[in-house]
Each structure stands twice: as C-alpha cells, then as structure tokens.
Amino acid sequence: MLRFILLLFCLLPISAKAMEHSGITARFEPPQVHPGDVCTLIVEMDRDTFGQFELHVPAHSQLHVVSVLRVPVSLANGRYRQRQCLQLQPLSSGEVTINEAQVELTDANGTQTISLPMVMLQVLPLEATDLNDAPESLPGTIDESNGKSPAFLIGGILLCGILLVAVTILCKRLLRDSNLEAHLKYDPALEAVEKLQSGVVPKRSLEQILAQRDFHISPELRCEIEEAVYGQHCQPAALLASLRKELMH
Q1: Calpha distance 225→239 (Å, rounded)
Q2: In terms of Cα–Cα distance, which of 15, 91, 82, 78 is closest to 49?
Q3: Could you give the dihedral angle defined by the CA atoms of residues 149, 150, 152 and 154, in that order, rounded to the nearest 10 degrees?
Q4: Which residues, including other chains, have CB under 8 Å from residue 24's CB and lie 6 or more apart?
Q5: Number of C-alpha atoms within 13 angstroms, CB side, residue 142?
Q6: Which residues is 29 bridged to in the sheet?
Q7: 69, 125, 143, 154: least surrounded by Cβ within 10 Å?
C-alpha cells in the first residue's frame, strides 16, 4: 500500500508535466448553469509541433451528453490547433466534477495517454419563481377598463360579414339581370341577316332559328335553313331573301 502511494505521488508531477508539454487544456463554457441548461466541455490543443488527440470522458451520472463536435487539426500562424467539444446537460444542482477524463495524444514521440486536469462545473439551483406551479397570465389579457373592446370587435366583424353578403347578393343579381337583358336583346334572325349580307353563312344563328319556337317559319324556309346548316350547298342570297320575306316584317 505504501509503495502504491509513493508511486502515485511520483506520477502526479509527471502527468502534470506531460499535460503542460502537450498544450492541451480543458474547461467548461459557461462555467455556471442551471439544471436542464446546455453547457460545453471544451478540450483544446495549441502547440508549435504537430500532434493530434482523441478525447475519452467517462460517463457521469449527473451529466447527459447532447452532442459531440470534433474539429480536426489545423495549422495557423505556426501553431497546430485541435478541438473537441461535448455538449452536456446537467440533471441536478450542485458541483459537478470531471476528474477521470483522458486524451490519447499522438505526436512525433508516438502515442501516449494523458490525464486531463480536474474540471468543475457549478450547477446553480433553480430560482423559486422557476418552481412555481401557479399558471402565468396570458399575454395581452384585456383588463376591466377595456372590457368593451371584444364587444365592439365582434360587432364590427358581424357588420362586415353582413355587408359582404349583401354586396355578393347584389352583384349576382346585377349579373343575372345583365345576362337576361343580353339574352332578350339577342335576335338570331337579325344576326343571320347581317352575316348573310356579308356573304357568311351563320350556322349558329340559323340553328337557333330552327330551335326556337318563337320563329314561325314556313316549311320551305326551314328546308332552306337546314340545307345551309347541315347540307353541302347553300345560296346565301336566296336564303337572305327568304329570311327578309318571312321574319323581317
């Protein structure tokens, strides 16, 4: 037992010297948090000779690992730098200590295991207001002085809705009346006469003359119109004369 204690005291300065020589440091950022907050254990290497390390942190009952970030070795201004970050989440208040973390450092001398110095994290207790179970008031709650505001708001919405419905009904009625007026003003016989005068056979207008019962046409004129619409031969001048004779009184 005495031999083990003596060996431990001999290794402590050797480990500290190796740690200083490696250029590796460790810290918590931020150093003080509350339970549930996320903090970062940052282990960095900054040295003038090449080296790279791999971090080993044992599991801790009071810390939950959120994520791990590894930044590879880079050379800038003659310095070799490397970083590994562990995002941790403390589960309860108190002083959290990490004293068994190690790095495997590889450099020109080979690979060696170096123990990191003890790193402490202060986890502050939650404030009394954070533990209060009473429900907080909703933002924007209307007090008694503004108690009439919802009534005015609802009344305004209803009025806008009524106006919108009235305008919609009025527009539909106007559109229907305009369509009806256009339909009443449309005379297929007049359109057929106008187009036949220009030498065009208006089949749509002639079909409407055949379909509408308002037009009282003779069997001879009906045959002429059917020949113009469905047949191959049509004489616009003769058809025009027949239409004028029977329909254009």
Answers
A1: 7
A2: 78
A3: 160
A4: 43, 44, 45, 53, 103, 105, 114, 116
A5: 8
A6: 40
A7: 143
Q: What is the DSSP letter of 217?
A: -
Region for 164 from its dihedrals, namely left if φ exceeds 0, alpha if ψ lies in -120 to 50, beta otherwise? alpha
> How does DSSP classify residue 105?
E
DSSP 112-150: EEEEPPPEEEEEPPPPGGGG--SPPPPTT---GGGTTHH
- Report d(CA 41, CA 57) in Å as an integer: 10
- Supply the CATH classification number for the domain 20-125: 2.60.40.10
- 31 cis-preceded (ω within 30 degrees of 0): no
Burial class (CB in 10 A: 0-12, 13-18, 19+), 225: buried
Instruction: Give the model confidence (pLDDT) of 170-222 as tens digits.
Output: 888 887 766 655 555 567 878 878 888 887 888 888 888 888 766 778 888 88
